[in-house]
Amino acid sequence: MSIYKQPPAETGAIITWCPGCGNFGILQAFKMAIRELGINPYKVAIVTGIGCHGKLANYLNYNSIHTIHGRVAPMITAIKLANKELTVIGFAGDGDQYGIGMGHLPHIIRRNPDVTLIVHNNTVYGLTTGQASPTTERGQVTRTTPWGQWEEPINPIAMAISLRASFVARGFAGDVQHLKWLIKEAIKHKGFSLVDVLQPCVTFDRLHTYMWYRKRIYKLEETGHDPTNWEEAMKKAYEWGDRIPIGIFYREEKPTMEELLEPVKNNPPLAYLKHEPGKIKDLLIRMLSYTE
User: Fold this and answer.
1) Angle at 32 between CA 35 and CA 219, to 5 degrees
2) Is 281 left (phi over 0), alpha (psi -120 to 50) or beta?
3) pLDDT single digits (tens) 179-220
4) Which of 1, 42, 248, 292 has a Cα at 20 to 30 A from 140?
5) What whole-number distance in Å separates Cα of residue 268 and Cα of residue 49?
6) Is the dihedral of CA 48, 52, 58, 59 positive or negative?
7) CA 30, CA 134: separation in Å to the nearest integer?
């Protein structure tokens, strides 16, 4: 446990999410996880994408970057490359990560940086008033699918497990204590961790309510599920409907990007900057004074 005096986790900014939004549960679970892990907030870096979840960076008193649409995965990879001493966490939405950002998911999985990606999965584009997203269920009515969604929804859990992501989990924003535990396990895991969070959108998704999820979800750890069994994890990934599993689906120990990539392992950029502060100063001056 660290001996420093921990600063407030909140910035004091007014939270503008809709009352009852699932983002509140994710925010609370994350703050509790960081506090209980005893991580120095100055050693935490968070990245948020585009969507309602993106406001989360405004409310947390940590180093943060609000990136462009779909670029959370490459951004958290880059931060870990620059400073492997940081605890790096990315927050994305289902539209942000599984839509425009989907192309980055296989590559962060195969590189296996020691970072955590938390996806706020509310099955719609909530920020832009409820259009269908890649995880919208077939038949679900949205602003852009008034006759019901006809496309097959993406299964992010099955996709991540099929690519052998080293940690794959699903949480529920309505169970903050369980979600806190999942986030803690994801952060402690050495390697890339994906935590997909079922997050009710009380304004634009009238199907996936808190009650709808509570009637269906069950916890994998209470069934004796072995997260090291890849075949069983894939079977569980396809359970959806009357029963929806949450918990850790799959976990595998394997080398990380920081252990395999020679320049980062032997001479990370942070060490270079510590010894050559003048060079980064010159670079910043050139960038800030650049004109076309």
Assistant:
1) 130
2) alpha
3) 999 999 999 999 999 999 999 999 999 899 999 999 999 999
4) 248
5) 26
6) negative
7) 25
